[in-house]
Structure formats: C-alpha cells, structure tokens
Amino acid sequence: MTDSTTSRRSSRVSLTVPIPPFRSRLPWVGGDLQTLRNTLFELAGLGRVDLEAEGFDQVRFTFPMPDGSGDRLLGTLNRPLVEREGAPLVMLVHGLAGCETSSYMLTTAKALLHEGYRVMRLNLRGAGPTRSLCRGMYHAGRTGDLAAVLAQLAPQIAGEGVVIIGYSLGGNALLKFLGERGRVPGVLGAVAVSAPVDLKAAQRTIMRPRNRVYHHWMLRKLIRDSLAGAADPSDAEQRAARAARTVYAFDDGFVAPRNGFEGADAYYEACSARGFVRHIRIPTIILHARDDPWIPIASYQQVEETKPAIVLTVYPPSGGHVGFHTKGSRYPWHDRLTISFLDRLTLA
Fold it and tell me: What are 122-148's pLDDT values in tens digits?
C-alpha cells in the first residue's frame, strides 16, 4: 500500500474522544472573564505554576534553524515524577506575545506531568528567551520552524512519537503545518486551542470598539517585542512598528514586508489555517469557544465544510480565549480534553 493511499484512508477514519461537559466556574462566567482570569491572577500574584519547585526535572534544548540565519530556538523539557510507559512527548506551542512561561503553557505542562507525560515547552523564533538569539520573528504561518525542531528531537526524547498542542496563533501555525504536510513522521496527534483560523476575521474582531483594551494591550506587546533583543530591524521597520496604531497597521507595515508578503491582507490570506485543515491526515482536535471575544466562531465555517473525519471539532458555548476554566476541576477544560485524547492515543 502506498503512503498516499494510507493517507487518504486514514483521513476517512472518524476521531472519537470522550468529551467532558464544560461548565463555567464561578465567578468566571462569560467570554471576557474566562479570557482574563489567568491575567488577573498573574497581576495579583496568585496561582503561578512553578514546575521546578514541584520537583519536575527541567532541561533546556537548543534548536539551530537550518535557514542560514543563525537563529536558535529554545525549548524546555520537563519530565514527570513517574513516567507513563510508551507515552509520547507532548510539545506545547504558545500564542501571540507568549513564550514558555505563559500561564496556559505552565498550567497545561503541570496537568500533563501529573498524568505521566513528558512535556516540551517550545519558544518560537524571537519569543521569550529566544529574543536575544534570533534576528527573525515567528508569525502565523512560519511552519518551517516546527519542522526543523521536530527533525532535531533525539530518539530518546521523541522515540515514542510526539503530540503537539498549539494555542491561539500557535494553534493556527500548527494546523497550517499539518495541512501542508498531511502525515508528519513521528507526530501522532495534535490539539489546536482557540486558533485564529481566519486571520483577517480575527484582525477585524480585535479592532472592534468593545475590544479596545485587548487591542491596546496586544499592540503594545507586539511593538515592544519587535524592537527588542537581536531582531535588528531596519530604520524603516522601526518607524513602521512605532507608528502603528492598530494591529492591522503593524502587520501591514512590519510583519508582512519583513516576511516577504505584499501587505497584511496577503499575509492573512496566505497564512490562515482554514484553507489547510482539509489536508490534515493525523488525529487532530480543534477546540474553540463560541464566546471567544477575539475570534468569531464564524471563522470556522470553512473548517466545518472541508475537514476530514480524522479532525474532531469541539465548540462549547463558553470558555473565552484560551480560558475554559471549568467547574469541579483543578485543570482547565481544554487540558482535561487533551488528557482524554492522549490517553486514547496511548492505548491505541
């Protein structure tokens, strides 16, 4: 049987995973409070996850990029106290303006470590601790970096396979990556949480008047990150970044030209994952809350119309943006669903 025949047949196999019900945990009711809960806790100095303090081994990995840039990505591997036999490595990919220490990354890592899974928290190009090591910056469609990291994982780390979890912008990049490649050697499954699968729709939504606080916060972080570390932007790029008053202007004047796109709209069209999902050939869960204040559920219409059976979409009525703080659980709901998915893959 040829690889292409196997790929076509696997895409017709339905993915079924036990889905626990989602019930918002008081007082985090509604999309905005679900979205803001982690940020509010961080500002108050509450609930910060410290994996080393909890006894989980931590090892830093460096991934040189093979594109001649000299850029190096960093990942942090945490091992559970008791490792599940035959379990895959779980790689976490952060969202826009995030890194390995983002609260959702640490929370998911803790949940998975307690379940016996090894976890790699990956910093994308120019994010967090890689800012001083990279002249380039990640974006919604920079999928070659994921391929480069996977190719460098040693057998003793990823010999049982890899499951990738992508959040927000990282989720879009993950879905695009999987769609571009169909079946990826060594990748057993994937989960995308709150992914902006239609980047233009997400841009329009974040710029609505009701989202002006989110918009201002995000834009400020984007400008700061673009000018920091080893990025070495040209004078024109610096002027474009500093002059941006909207996310669209930032993408149009800085992100797009820096990465070879004619403008923001060309960047959005080329990198939106909605057109790639139909080509995915490995078990994948796409999770998105209907009350996400940043990404409209209508973005997922094309995904629903074209997705293969191997892709499971889950759209709870609430959960916000990478929130999903659920009643009766110490883990966010998306982590509970991910664990259920991983357990199914491990037992398969």
Answer: 999 999 999 999 999 999 999 999 999
